[in-house]
Design goal:
43% of the residues lie in helices and 9% in strands. The chain is of the alpha/beta class and 378 residues long. Strand 1 and strand 2 form a beta hairpin. It comes from Batillaria attramentaria.
């Protein structure tokens, strides 16, 4: 293998001839980008070049820095996934809970849109030298129509091909047979390096251990309280409308928008800036300051901070029934211990097999038969 520094120089020279991206002219010539793409292709220059050029055209076509999640604006809480802080290493931490989402029927299109919006903004909160992020997936309320193999493959495809080597860790909590079935279907398509980053934890002791390892006491305490509040039935108005701050006079009430440090360092400055600029009613397209794109929180959090009144949309009876059934299954497994999946890394062979987790997945929710295995680690 050629010297790595020489390969970095060579790839940088090869892509330098490309027309710069309008919103990010230095994207594909930055050393951080060059190294990520070479590393994701095991330092194979030709493969890294093809992959990076594909990403350049993808970003030229989609302009992700200007992307907004119209799904959340049209139906508040459409997606619950949001950044809530940073871990001890300074990596952005994203939290999602299916019970908080205002829909139970997600598509590949809306999922890719929201995740892209989220991670592009998370990148703006990353200090120099930080290149990965963390997801905490609370599977409470998860249904097959809200998270299925087809949807998971679509998101994984974008992350693998256009955001390689950015994924740090995925921590899955309150996992259910639905999750196990989806993971069993998608796992065969993702690289082993990506699968090994997924950790499946259930017991209180293991959750405390994992949170203590990755998060500050402040963020760990916030996550534990948020998770507990999202298990309550019915879910409180405060948790359904997670984009609103605690009501005035509520003292030290839990803030579902994120941990205290995240609120003070990102949300409060955003609100002050919106108060200064009267043209702040625009969404992502209007959020450019001094030629640079500024950090944007979850779309509904941003709308609320802009001064808009944002209210949750009531669930249909069908949505309520499906969610209640999904949670009953999880609670039943926790009580009887039957088929319990051990704490640990899901990427380990046999971690979910043989636990009665196979699902009868409708054809329209399955991974397309033409789908190819993903080869670049996320």
């Amino acid at each position: 293998m050629a010297d790595k520094s020489e390969m970095i120089r060579e790839l940088k020279e090869r892509v330098a001839q490309l027309e710069p991206l309008e919103d990010e002219p230095d994207f594909f010539t930055s050393e951080e980008t060059i190294i990520r793409y070479l590393k994701s292709r095991d330092w194979k220059l030709e493969e890294a070049e093809r992959m990076l050029m594909d990403t350049v055209e993808y970003r030229r076509r989609t302009r992700p820095l200007r992307l907004d999640c119209s799904f959340c604006h049209s139906r508040p809480g459409f997606h619950s996934m949001r950044q809530v802080g940073h871990d001890e290493a300074g990596r952005p931490v994203m939290y999602a809970n299916f019970a908080q989402a205002s829909t139970h029927r997600n598509s590949a299109e809306d999922a890719v849109c929201h995740v892209t919006y989220l991670i592009e903004n998370a990148k703006r909160s990353m200090a120099l030298g930080i290149s990965t992020w963390v997801f905490v997936m609370d599977c409470t309320g998860m249904t097959l129509s809200s998270c299925n193999p087809k949807l998971a493959y679509a998101v994984s495809n974008v992350l693998s091909n256009h955001y390689p080597e950015h994924l740090g860790t995925v921590i899955c909590l309150n996992h259910s047979p639905v999750f196990h079935g989806v993971w069993k279907a998608i796992k065969q398509f993702v690289p082993p390096q990506t699968a090994a980053k997924v950790k499946l934890v259930r017991s209180k002791a293991k959750i405390a251990e994992v949170f203590s390892k990755h998060f500050s006491p402040e963020l760990a305490a916030w996550l534990k309280e948020e998770i507990a509040l999202n298990k309550q039935k019915p879910l409180s108005k405060e948790q359904l409308e997670f984009w609103n701050p605690p009501s005035t006079g509520s003292g030290k009430a839990h803030d579902p928008r994120g941990c205290p440090t995240y609120v003070s360092e990102y949300l409060e400055p955003f609100k002050r800036e919106c108060g200064k600029q009267r043209n702040c009613d625009g969404h992502a397209e209007g959020d450019v300051t001094s030629g640079e794109f500024r950090y944007l929180p979850h779309p509904n959090v941003a709308d609320c901070l802009r001064g808009h009144v944002v209210r949750a949309v009531a669930l249909t009876p069908e949505e309520k029934r499906e969610r209640e059934h999904a949670q009953e299954v999880v609670e039943a497994k926790s009580r009887d211990g039957g088929g319990e999946v051990e704490d640990g890394e899901v990427g380990t062979e046999g971690a979910i097999g043989g636990n009665g987790c196979d699902l009868d997945i409708p054809s329209d929710l399955q991974i397309p038969p033409t789908a190819r295995p993903l080869t670049a680690p996320s």
